[in-house]
User: What shape does this take?
Amino acid sequence: MASNVSELTTYDAYLAGEWKKSSSGETIAIQSPYLHDTIGRVQAVTQDEVDQAIKAAHKAQKEWASLSLSERGVFLNRWADELVKNEQDIARSVMKEVGKGFKDSRKEVVRTADLIRYTVQEALHMHGESLRGDGFPGGPQKKLGIVERVPLGVVLAISPFNYPINLAASKIAPALMAGNGVIFKPATQGSISGIKMIEALDRAGLPKGLLSLTTGRGSVIGDYLVEHKGIDMISFTGGSKTGRHLSKQSVMIPLVLELGGKDPAIVCDDADMDVAVKSIMNGAFSYSGQRCTAIKRVLVNEKVADELVNRLKAEVEKLTIGSPEDDSTIVPLISDKSADFVQSLIDDALTKKATLVTGNKRERNLIYPTLLDHVTEDMDVAWIEPFGPVLPIIRVSSDEQAVEMANKSEYGLQASVFSQDIDRALEVAKEVEAGTVQINGRTERGPDHFPFLGVKASGMGVQGIHNSLVSMSRQRVTVMNLK
Ligand code: NAP
Ligand code: G3H
Assistant: This one.
């Protein structure tokens, strides 16, 4: 499966049921964001190999779809078991490849096994329905409609770097349970972890050819995959720019997009400060802010702004900074380019007279947690997603102004509202344009069976276990015309 030349592993791709080297003869070096060294190489798969993988997936899918749900579930449950058995090894891969703390990497593996098992159970408990024709006006209709869910065919699953196991499995598991074949394109930075996850699925005995893992740069094979006639549905998680590009390329193919965000924490003047501070800290800075659902701006009522800023400053200065191997909260960002980008947002804000509360220190791609106060609308950091540990504070004079600022953003993934008056919190929540609003808590995707969606530039369609099963299948209606 993997060859070890001079202690550097070159991983094979998993194509049409076989682990093999790409005929391109080309491999891609994977750099660790904190070791600053190549940790392995993955195959650069060719268009021809994509064709063969899709063909094999269609062939295997027919038989797979004829299995009962519980038979499919057996394979998936075994996959979950394999992931748990190899938790340490997979988590080490995640840590090395994307620089996530070891404890969090382990949590990601366990969360994924739970998600797979829940997906099996959810699919087993999704029932069809029957409808009587005489329910509609206009005379007796002696018809009985039977509505079932059937697979779409072959699903293309494209995942981002920051949850290389969990966000991939949250597409693959429902796609398989719904009876589809899968082509999995992992983020290049994240492919070694993706390979380990698929090795576990292979060990679970998944029928050969049903799923292929096509490693390669999105910029090279991405469009080819997305435009391929053999793809029947695309489930994508990643940046809004890539998502927008995909939606132009994939004409008339069902598409679910989970994209970027600029989640606001709205802090009302009656907020419980202990709750707000704890949630904002955790929401904004875990994994250096490299979460789509990270709190990426604070809209605080000016009456309590000084108190909030002082308390956040004290907490930011306590954050652990350094290596994911030590479970530091603040770790090096995924690339030097990402760090340059975050730095440019800080520089722009400071040039435009934001107040630096703490931070603005950098060692290569390690950006120290940075708190900026008195951020105003003319600053890029007020609107742009940094995907890094920088938190802008925008002071507002009322709930209405907070809502106005929240909704001026092009994004609408999640938002948090902090108030001790539940009616007031609900009133604000109702006005915010976002897929999910959290009251008195941090923005986050889980629990994974909740619907997860973004509006505006944050996405299209809905994920979450039940909704993914729905989006990866279609209804088939059989009508019995009765005498
Ligand atoms: P990205 O650059 O958009 O990449 C996401 C995936 O798309 C990768 O697998 C990438 O492959 C692939 N890709 C790139 N160009 C493509 C093309 N032309 N056709 C098909 N696929 C293509 O995002 P990222 O940097 O990995 O992740 C960070 C972003 O994702 C942030 O904006 C974050 O908010 C967002 N995100 C959103 C959610 C959510 O659920 N809403 C969750 C996590 C992350 P390569 O790696 O080979 O380029
Ligand atoms: O990065 C995007 C993920 O969907 C966020 O998941 O809220 O569990 O960290 P999370």
Summary: Residues 276 and 337 are 32 Å apart (CA to CA).
